[in-house]
Amino acid sequence: MTALIQLSGITKVLKGQQQPRTILDGVNLDVHAGESIAIVGRSGSGKSTLLSVLGLFDRPDHGSYTLSGDDISRLPERRAAKLRSSHFGFVFQRFFLLKHLTAAQNVAMALVNGQGWLPRRQRRAKVMAALDEVGIAHLAKNRPTRMSGGEQQRVAIARALVRQPRILLADEPTGALDTETGTLVIDALSAVTDRGCALILVTHDRDHAARMGRVMHLDAGVLTEQAGAPAGQGGRR
Amino acid sequence: MIRFSGRFRSAFIIGIQGIRARKTRTLLSMVSLFLGVLAVVIVQAGASIAERAQLANLELAVGLDGTKTMGLGGASPQVGPIILDTVKGRQDAMALVGMQAIIGEPGVRPVNPDAAPFDGSWGHSAPMVCDAVGNCREQTAQESGPEGQAIEVRLTAVTGDVRKFRPYRPVSGRWLDFTTMPALAPSLVLNKEAAKGFTTHRVPAEMRVAGASANLTPRFVGVVDDGDSRPRAYVRVDELSHWVPTTKLIDPSFGEVQVLLDAETPVEQVLASKLKAVNVETYTELINSRKDQEKELAMLRMIFLAMAGLVLLIGVAGILNVGLATVGERVEEFALRRAVGTPRALLAGIVLAETLITGMLTAALAIGASVGGLKLLVTLFGDSEPFLQGLAFPWDAGVAGIIAGLIAGILGGIVPALRAAGIPIATVMRA
């Protein structure tokens, strides 16, 4: 079966300092549809950089990146933006919700991004479906300032899901939440694999990592599969 | 096209959201911009109104644009009868004959020799006297007689309603009625300066005109504003011709004779031919005051627009300052928008949309304020300032305001827009 994402020999070197520093060193990774992968590692090991490359925020210096068989290693920014909109969803540690918008408007942000136009009614239906998927449809008209951290992160997840992405990238999404709320957020994230969306989760939390299908360890830019990692509850291997 | 439409709508929606989220900042940037746009609108409106006022005065003095004026070169006793016969009863051609007239006590020196204005701005010189070949000199005190209760006016005898060519503004009373039989006591319409003189000085109703068989008893029927600073009175030619023979009345060697013509009237050719037959040359000139004034007015307008432009620049600096500060505050928002697939061009479009909407809103407010201000001005001072009567807001000032708002929006927004488009997405990853 063809991998949804295939990274081969990805290298990223941080320049502009006294001595160039290799952040990613020949990373190889295959991700299949509906798969969930946890990436763990110490701070500064390159987890976020790997996610940046995966999410087309940044380009690798060497190696190839294919998405559904197409090489996208050297994609121009305009096409990268289009792919980000159509294929990827992002969840960050900080929720990045706009305070002056309601939950529904924050979710709609991903739809009003210049990549095609949806009439208001269709937009609203998609937004409500996404909010419903994460269990907070009743908070659609609330502004972020009137929500708890868990609720805000679920709004952020709804924003990531509203375009029905094929890959969901989550960068320490539970970092700012308590354990119980973090578990609920991981539940919401894991659920997306049921409909064939791949989930790549960067986390420091071993319990959350253990719930993923595979656990990858990143150390000094080298990505290795963690031996003996249990098969998670969410996603397939 | 669909893509453009989607991006345009997205930029507009997000721009409106941005403005609503930062009402105070938007208001602050609008304040300085408002003054700038208002300056442009006021300058443009002022220039249009001044142009209109200036042209209005010129129209009174020389005639409406498109009118032809025919002057005469040479003299003949036949000139008067020829002109009167040719233009009689016509609406497309009228003759004006200018002469001096003294109204008041006989045998005295008028209070304003040579029909000078009553404010003394011409000084107090003795009346002039000219011989048959045109040599003029000041009259001696003995010749002019003692100063008495008399007023000298420029008398203009007209063959028809000349207001068709020179739109004199009514002040009081009525204009000359050409539908009635000519009266022996000629009706006179005074200009404002003459009316001022007759209000100040009580003089007997006795008028002396050079060449008249007797002194006349005039009847003042109205006052008009003809833009002339000298006292002037208008009279029907046919009423004056009871007392002054036509050959003397319309004689270029005695007074000014001018024929006003429609641009396309056949009278011009007919009259010129008839006069040529008696060895009187004619010269015709087409009035085009607007074109003549254009250069001068354009220069004036440019100077004022440059000043308004400077004020507008201050407004642009304000909007630029607020725009840059806002982008600085919204780094994470823009990075996030890029992360969810918003192209750089749309990010720039969002910022530009915000500044353009702000600029257009401000322009609308400035235009509204100008319209309101002008209406108030007309209401308060319309009665005392005739050129304000019926004055409407000039549309070109509105257009100038909208253009100023657009330019300010673009100039003030372009740098913040470029900065917003250049924000790296990794900002959200490092946050």
Automatic annotation (TrEMBL), chain A:
InterPro entries referenced in this protein's UniProt entry, alphabetically: AAA+_ATPase, ABC_transporter-like_ATP-bd, ABC_transporter-like_CS, ABC_transpr_LolD-like, MacB-like_ATP-bd, P-loop_NTPase
GO annotations of cellular component type: membrane protein complex; plasma membrane
Gene Ontology MF, one: transmembrane transporter activity
Pfam families: ABC_tran (PF00005)
Transmembrane residue ranges: none
The ABC transporter domain, residue ranges: 5-236
Lineage top rank: taxon: Bacteria
UniProt keywords, alphabetically: ATP-binding, Nucleotide-binding, Transport
Name of this protein: ABC transporter ATP-binding protein
Lineage: Bacteria, Bacillati, Actinomycetota, Actinomycetes, Micromonosporales
From TrEMBL, chain B:
Keyword terms of this UniProt record: Cell membrane, Membrane, Transmembrane, Transmembrane helix
GO cellular component terms listed in the entry, alphabetical order: plasma membrane
Keyword Membrane annotated: yes
Coiled coil: none
Annotated ranges, domain ABC3 transporter permease C-terminal: 306-424
InterPro entries: ABC3_permease_C, Macrolide_Exporter_MacB
GO molecular function, one term: transmembrane transporter activity
Subcellular location field: Cell membrane
Cell cycle found in the keyword field: no
Pfam families the record matches: FtsX
Entry membrane topology: Multi-pass membrane protein
Transmembrane intervals: 27-47, 298-324, 345-378, 398-421
Family: Belongs to the ABC-4 integral membrane protein family.
Protein name: Permease
